[in-house]
Structure prediction request, 246 residues.
Amino acid sequence: MINTQKISTGSLDLDKFLSNGYETDVITTLYGPGGSGKSNLCIIVATFQARRGKKVIFIDTEGGFSSDRFKQIHQGTREEIERDLQNIFLLKPTSFKEQQKAFEQMLLHVKKESISLIIIDSIAMLYRLELSEAIGTKESEKISKVNRKLANQLRALNEIARKQGIPIIITNQVYSTFIQNQEDGDTERQVSMVGGDLLKYWSKCLIELKNYYGKRKLILKKHRSLPIKELMFEIVETGIRKRGLF
Prediction:
């Protein structure tokens, strides 16, 4: 039997929920609407690794990384916080073209440094903007080119995870569609990930996050060894903690 290596999520409750943390040889995708806690989970695990002197690559496409939040979670002295922040290589692309360049920088860091974790928050926001522009031109080749670039980025991440055992955590947005039930005529709201099947294919772990008037829940939707299950949680100063009913 092969024992899969894992890293701590930075939260005891989430570690227990995931049977000791995030797997190191796969892509884990956290997806959900804005304000559901995706960036918080990313900063929590990044802080945990940085505090232990380990290097983290954090590609921040939405401006979600906060040094103030890092300090809250860290709970160390000013000197310790400043030292450990140096362990995070923060890249902040503002276009899909810049995201591609950020990936190239990431690959160079992986070759030169001992990297313990790679985070992309989020993988599809800039892709979505680029795709919208391509669709606006009604040129199928441009649309295909944008999709190929995202697929290549995911392929590169998957190769890093599988061959080098570096855990990959990405976040993703969702969008809603409304489908009419043909039996009773009622309209049902369906929530889907941006990127759809492409993201589902490359991600071996899928975690959906929900936020209902401040009550947060994460749902393990896909995992290689764990069943579908749920965890209610709340965001606190030092990270997250398990809470009662949703």
